[in-house]
């Protein structure tokens, strides 16, 4: 047996044990009041073996949590004025969907090789955010000189009974934080970051609910780096996808570890900044870093120390009439006595559990709405309602109630705000962009980086709106980087501090004006997702040849020739790179050096910048639009419905409940170019699924696209049938819109820049084709004849070409196939073709 030493803290009187006399003369932080002191005299001793030290340390840490929980339970309630700064007993109803980012007064940026914290409102009129930034920037130099000595690995504080006056001494003690040594050492208590002092009166759960730990990612696994490097799609989107998946892995693995104070589902990863953040007790920061770095399933490694951001919760306010909050939790475990009843009689057992939960929650929480608990034991989900927005740590409090027979955990976006109809007041707000948070943001305005810069700005602002603030109307966000404005809608009139909350959000890279520059009722939608809305005509001003740049004012013939040569590739250039682009809608007019595309939205002012940023696009277009036209589009005539059977191979768990699976399916289908967003219908009981698609591809291609896109979601699909368009209007064969009015002063528009021809019906017609440009190198007559060969309904004896008038004429002996004729003319390099036809008298003896 090894000797042990009983140690008494001179500050608060707490006693604990050290494993050997080697502790004498060493400095150690008291596990109760956090005040460092030098161990001076032994009280008793015993022997212990070295292999037991690590286990003893963990036991001491666990005992410390239990002791602090007991202390909190025994402490009398304090007045509101005596609460820890920035914390309230209940959360402000307007404080958002989760506490993860609310009240952030600083944003973390990488400066050189380390992480620095700067104020979000730098250069403003001062305030709490600036003071917090100054506090976070302090490295604890005042404590550094007195706390340099390391705590020996042989010193393991073991909490024992505290003295009777411990409570008062602890509350009055001034907490101090030790500065982590540059050399690696194992402390009995995981070291906290020095930038924020943790109130020792806070329990671990309370400290976790009010602190955000931000780690610098110092290493990425090769699988992540290769995925980013080899990505064929938008880099920003790939980074966002990998960031989310990495955060999910970290969340899952930390949940399995021994980190007791980590709040599940609070992890956020930003691979573009190499930052990882989560909510936990700052005193467990080193333990969390070790858990991440030593887990092979987690493909990132983080710095050993974290920066700590204090989440300043709003002060308690009066209840808002007509507003409730619905919160969902995962049921991880049910007591054996109840689970046996449920197994024996599911209906009766579920009813008993619901009644028990309703009774206990009503007794414990005054803001709980009686009889609001709803259970879905098939997918392990519990739903309840409260009159106040629940704390992010509420599930921890519920789990500690002995009479509650379930163990709960968080769900992502688990809180929903419910408003009565009279509280619904749709509002549209427009804010001015004051500046970008990152000083080097303007470098991304270069041509090659503009698309990545724009995507990052919009996605960051969307996260701030959708994840942290109640009432945002999905799909209403519009960012205008030319006029520097941001517009979005709420289902109610938002609070006055909305801009401040958005500016403080970790992911938002913009600083918006303190107040909106325009407020009013919602304006008509600026987009119709998946369906054509506007046609935009742009002028080509530059063409990039092989090692040569051609300008339209200097080399018009070269620009025309290259544009005619690349005519068929225009759709490939724009697909996937221009938000809202309608597939197969791109066409050009080489003769006049124009390009036109259709969008499902009013074109953003920086559309030309987005087009010019496309890497593979060899042209540059002018910033000013040539024309913008409305398009006519009839969904009933231009869309088909496809039906599938599906088998859901996912397990019966909370993350695979039907609404979650449906949301994931919608996200996957959104990448298909002809899918109509929001048209998905899924019946999980019957196992049927239907989608609406714009016409343009045959069913064989479309069904393979749908089946392939959903394979990764563990859904097994089989194609049933398709319902063709049911409308009576004439639809464009590509499923795109028809221009209303004139198109670039060319007369009545068809789909693009080319004017529409007048087409008669019947088998016996005289057809006149006017072409705007011939870009081929062979004889025009021979090329025109080649385009018409193979059509049995063309009378080739009547074929004629007038090169002076740019006309091709012939007569027909059967039904004319206009789309096929147009395709073959383009294949032979005839562009801007207008097809006209007039009926001829019926030949004698022909059938009517």
From TrEMBL:
Residues 61-71 have a biased composition (Acidic residues). Residues 40-58, 178-188 have a biased composition (Low complexity). Residues 72-82 have a biased composition (Basic and acidic residues). Keywords: Membrane, Transmembrane, Transmembrane helix. Residues 40-96, 138-191 are annotated as: Disordered. Coiled coil: none annotated. The chain crosses the membrane at residues 101-120. This is Uncharacterized protein. The lineage of its organism: Bacteria, Pseudomonadati, Planctomycetota, Planctomycetia, Planctomycetales.
């Amino acid at each position: 047996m090894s000797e042990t030493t009983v140690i008494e803290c001179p500050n608060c009187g707490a006693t604990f044990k050290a494993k050997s006399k080697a502790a004498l003369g060493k400095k150690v932080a008291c596990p109760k009041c956090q005040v460092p002191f030098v161990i001076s005299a032994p009280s008793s001793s015993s022997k212990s073996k070295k292999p037991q030290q690590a286990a003893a340390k963990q036991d001491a840490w666990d005992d410390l949590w239990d002791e602090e929980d007991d202390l909190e339970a025994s402490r009398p309630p304090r007045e509101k004025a005596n609460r820890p700064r920035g914390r309230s007993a209940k959360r402000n109803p307007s404080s958002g969907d989760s506490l993860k980012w609310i009240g952030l007064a600083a944003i973390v940026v990488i400066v050189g090789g380390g992480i620095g914290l700067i104020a979000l409102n730098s250069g403003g009129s001062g305030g709490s955010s600036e003071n917090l930034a100054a506090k976070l920037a302090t490295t604890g130099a005042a404590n550094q000189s007195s706390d340099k000595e390391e705590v020996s690995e042989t010193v393991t504080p073991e909490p024992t009974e505290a003295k009777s006056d411990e409570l008062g001494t602890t509350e009055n003690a001034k907490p101090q934080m030790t500065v982590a040594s540059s050399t690696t050492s194992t402390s009995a208590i995981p070291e906290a970051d020095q930038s924020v002092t943790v109130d020792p009166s806070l329990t671990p759960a309370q400290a976790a609910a009010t602190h955000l730990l931000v780690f610098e990612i110092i290493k990425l696994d090769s699988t992540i780096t290769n995925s980013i490097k080899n990505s064929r799609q938008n880099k920003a989107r790939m980074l966002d996808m990998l960031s989310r998946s990495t955060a999910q892995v970290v969340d899952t693995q930390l949940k399995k570890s021994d980190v007791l104070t980590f709040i599940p589902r609070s992890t956020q990863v930003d691979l573009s900044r190499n930052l990882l953040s989560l909510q936990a007790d700052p005193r467990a920061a080193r333990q969390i870093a070790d858990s991440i770095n030593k887990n092979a399933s987690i493909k990132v490694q983080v710095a050993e120390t974290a920066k700590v951001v204090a989440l300043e919760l709003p002060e308690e306010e009066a209840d808002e009439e007509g507003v409730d909050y619905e919160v969902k939790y995962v049921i991880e475990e049910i007591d054996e006595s109840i689970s046996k009843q449920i197994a024996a009689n599911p209906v009766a057992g579920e009813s008993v559990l619901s009644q028990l939960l309703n009774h206990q929650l009503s007794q414990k929480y005054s803001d709980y709405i009686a009889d609001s608990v709803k259970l879905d034991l098939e997918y392990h989900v519990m739903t309840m309602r409260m009159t106040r927005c629940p704390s992010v740590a509420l599930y921890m409090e519920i789990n500690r109630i002995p009479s509650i027979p379930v163990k709960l955990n968080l769900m992502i976006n688990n809180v929903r705000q419910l408003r009565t109809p009279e509280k619904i007041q749709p509002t549209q707000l427009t804010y001015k962009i004051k500046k970008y948070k990152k000083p080097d943001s303007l470098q991304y305005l270069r041509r090659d980086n503009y698309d990545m810069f724009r995507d990052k700005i919009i996605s960051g602002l969307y996260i701030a709106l959708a994840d942290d603030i109640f009432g945002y109307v999905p799909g209403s966000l519009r960012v205008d980087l030319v006029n520097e404005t941001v517009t979005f809608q709420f289902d109610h009139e938002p609070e006055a501090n909305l801009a401040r909350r958005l500016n403080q959000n970790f992911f938002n890279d913009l600083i918006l004006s303190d107040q909106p520059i325009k407020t009013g009722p919602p304006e008509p939608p600026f987009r119709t997702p998946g369906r054509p809305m506007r046609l935009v005509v742009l002028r080509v001003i530059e063409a990039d040849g092989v090692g040569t740049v051609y300008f339209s004012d200097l080399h018009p013939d070269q620009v025309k020739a290259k544009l005619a040569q690349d005519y068929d590739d225009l759709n490939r250039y724009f697909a996937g790179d221009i938000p809202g682009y309608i597939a197969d809608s791109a066409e050009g007019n080489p003769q006049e050096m124009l390009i036109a595309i259709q969008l499902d939205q009013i074109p953003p002012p920086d559309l030309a910048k987005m087009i010019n940023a496309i890497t593979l696009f060899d042209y540059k277009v002018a910033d000013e639009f040539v024309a913008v036209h409305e398009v006519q589009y009839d969904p009933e005539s231009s869309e088909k419905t496809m039906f599938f059977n599906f088998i859901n191979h996912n397990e019966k768990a909370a993350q695979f409940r039907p609404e979650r699976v449906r949301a994931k399916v919608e996200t996957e289908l959104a990448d298909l170019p002809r899918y109509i967003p929001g048209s998905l219908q899924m019946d999980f009981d019957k196992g049927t699924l239907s989608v609406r698609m714009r016409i343009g591809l045959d069913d064989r291609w479309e069904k393979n696209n749908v089946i392939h896109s959903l394979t990764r979601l563990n859904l097994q699909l089989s194609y049933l049938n398709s319902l063709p368009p049911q409308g009576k209007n004439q639809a464009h064969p590509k499923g795109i819109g028809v221009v209303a009015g004139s198109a670039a002063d060319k007369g009545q528009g068809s789909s693009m820049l080319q004017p529409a021809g007048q087409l008669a019906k019947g088998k016996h017609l005289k057809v006149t084709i006017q072409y705007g440009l011939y870009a081929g190198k062979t004889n025009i007559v021979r090329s025109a004849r080649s385009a018409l060969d193979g059509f049995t309904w063309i009378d080739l004896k009547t074929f004629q070409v007038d090169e002076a008038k740019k006309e091709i004429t012939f007569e027909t002996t059967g039904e004319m196939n206009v789309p096929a004729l147009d395709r073959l003319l383009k294949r032979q390099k005839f562009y801007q073709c207008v097809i006209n036809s007039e009926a001829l008298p019926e030949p004698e003896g022909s059938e009517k």
